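Narrative of activities, Objective 1.

The group set out to show that a structural description can be obtained from nothing but a protein's sequence at a throughput compatible with the screening campaign. Below is one input-output pair from the validation batch, recorded exactly as produced.
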Amino acid sequence: MWPHLTHPNTFLTLHCMARITIIILLATLRLTLPEIGGATSNLPSNTPPLPTPLRQAKQLIDQGDADTAVTILHQFLATPPRADYLDDTYLLLGAAYYDMKNFAEALKHLNLLHQQFPDSEVHERGQLLLARTHAAMNNPDLALPLLAHLRTITHDPDIKREALRLTADAFLQKKEFVHALRTLVEGMEDSSEPEAANLHEQVGAIVDHLDRRGLQRVRQSFPRSYPGDLASLRLIDDYLIHGEDHLAEREIQHFLATFPSHPRSATVRESLALAHSRLRANQYLIAVMLPLSGKLGPFANDVLEGIHIALEQARTQGDGPTIGILVKDHDAERQGFLDDLSTVLVYDRPLAIIGPLLSKNLPAMAEMAQRHRVPLITPTATLPNVRRLGGYLFSTAVTYQMQAERLAAYAVKEQGYHRFCILHPTTLYGRELARLFAQEVRRHNGEIIAVRSYKEGDTDFSPQITALKEEDLKKYGLALPVDVPQPGGKPSSRKDKRLLYTPGFDAIFIPSRSSDIGLIAAQLAYHDIHVPLLGANGWNAPDFARTADRAVEGAVFVDGFFLDSPNPLVNDFVERYKKRVQAPPSLFAALGYDAARVVIEGIRHGATSGESLREFLATQRNLPTLAGPASFAPDGILQRPLFLLQVKQGKFVQIE
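Output recorded for this entry:
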C-alpha cells in the first residue's frame, strides 16, 4: 500500500481500511436502522417500510458475517423485490462480496447499481466502493477517475473526505507518493480544524516512512512549502544518523535558506554546528565540486553517489585514517565560482578536489589547484593530455583515445583482423572515435579500406554502405553472379542472376548511439556485408542487446564499466550502490568511485598533503579501480583496463 516506505507494516492494511470504509458506507444508507445507529427520521414520510432481509443482511455485514448476508440477499433477489429496493440490494451485495474478497462479484453488483440507478440516493456510495474494489484488484488507474469525479460532484462531506483518502491511497499504490501528498495537502484547504489535523497526521506518516530517495523527491516537488520542510528535516536526521555530515550540512543550509522562520530553525542551527564540528574532526578532507542541480545534475549526482560508495567502503574496512567529504553544489560557469573554490582551498584545506564534469571548465580550476598545490581529479572530462593544463590535474575519465586503443588492439592483435571500414555519425563523439581508431589500426600495421559518415538521426544508410562497397571492390572485395531460384525449377537466364558481394575487409567500426546500431546492422546484412561489428561505449544501453536485430549477434564494443561483470570488485560496488540508491549504477557512478578510490589509496599509503598525494598518484603503478589495477600516464590520464563486451543471444557478455 505504501511504496517507497521503509516500514509499511506500521500502517493499516488495505483490507483493514476497507472494513472502516464499508462501515462508513452502510452506516449512512437510507436503509439504516435506528437500533444500529441510523437516522431514518430524516427519510421522507412516504418512505416504504424496509424489508426484513435487507435489515438482516446489513446487520450481518456490520458483524463481519458476509457469507450469510450474501445468501439472504440472493434469496431476497429471487422473490423478486420491488424495484425501489434493488439499488440498496446491489450495494449490500457489493459490500458483502468485498468483505469476502470476491472482488469480481463485488464489481458485478456495483456496476449494476451504477448502470441501472444513476440517480439513486446510494449511487455515490456505490461509486466509492467501486473505486475501492478497483484499487483492491491492483487497478488504481480505474479507481482514480471515479474518485476524481466523486470529489467534484458530491455534497456529502463524508464521501468527499473518504474519496480524498482513497485517492491518496491509489496514488501510493501507483508509487506516486508526491501526488498522494499533494492530494492530502489540497484536502486541508476546505477542512475543519479536526479534519485538517487528521490530514496533517497522514501526511506526516507518509513522510516519516519514506526512504531517502523518496524524501529527496518530495523536497524537490515542494521546494518552498509544506511538506517539503518535513522531508528536508527527515533528510537532515537521516544524514546525521548515518554520519554523513557533509550531506547534513548541505541539507541544513538549504533548509535555513528556504524556511528561515520555521519553528524548527533553532534546532536545525544546532545540528549545523554539530555537523560542521564533526566534519572538521576528520583527519583528511576531500572536496567535491560538481553541478548537482541544473541540467547536469543527474550525471553529477551519479558521480557523487559513486564517491559515497568509495568512502563507505573505506569506513567499513576501518584500518585507515578518517576521511571526510565536503560537497559543494557549484556550476563552474556561474559567476563567483572561482571565489568559492578559493575559499574552499584556503579555509577547508582539502587534500584533493574531485571535479568538474566538463572539459571546458578544467583550465581555470587546474590553474587554481596548481597554485594551492592540491590535486584536482576530474572523473568525466574527456580532454586528452590534461597535464598540459597543470601538474596537479588528473583525469579518471574513459577517453576516446583509450577506447580506440583497446578496441584496435583487440581486433588486430587478438582477432587477427587487418582490414577495416568505418561508418560513423558526424557528431564530435563519432568523428573523434573514427579518427583515433583509424590511427590505432595503422599503428598496428592494419589498413582502413574506407570511411563514411552519416547524420545522427538518419534511418537510411544505403548511400554510405554502397560507397563502402564500391571502395572495397576497387581493392579486395568480390562480386560474383549467382543464380536466382526460379519457380518450377526453370533454368536461370542472365537476367535471373544477381551479384553476390563478398567483403574484402575483416570488420567494420561503428561508433554510434545504441539506437542507431540495430538499423545499421540490418542494412549491412541486406547489402551482403556479413563481417564482425565493432563499437564504443555509446552502445552500452540497457535495452540495446534485447531489442536490436539479430544482425548484431557477436558484435563487440568497449566501455569503462559493465554492470553484470563477474568481477568481484564490480559485484560489491553494484550491491552497495543498489542498497544505497535503489537503482543500478551508471558509468558516471563508477568513474566517481574510481576518482575517490585513488585518493583514498594515497591517504592509506601515507599521503598527508597535496604535494605528497600528487607524487603518489603520479608514480603509483597499481592504483585500484573497478576494472583492475591502473596507473596515471605522464599526460595525467588514468590508464585503466576497459571492459570488452560482446552481444550474445540478446545479452551483453564480458570477454575475459
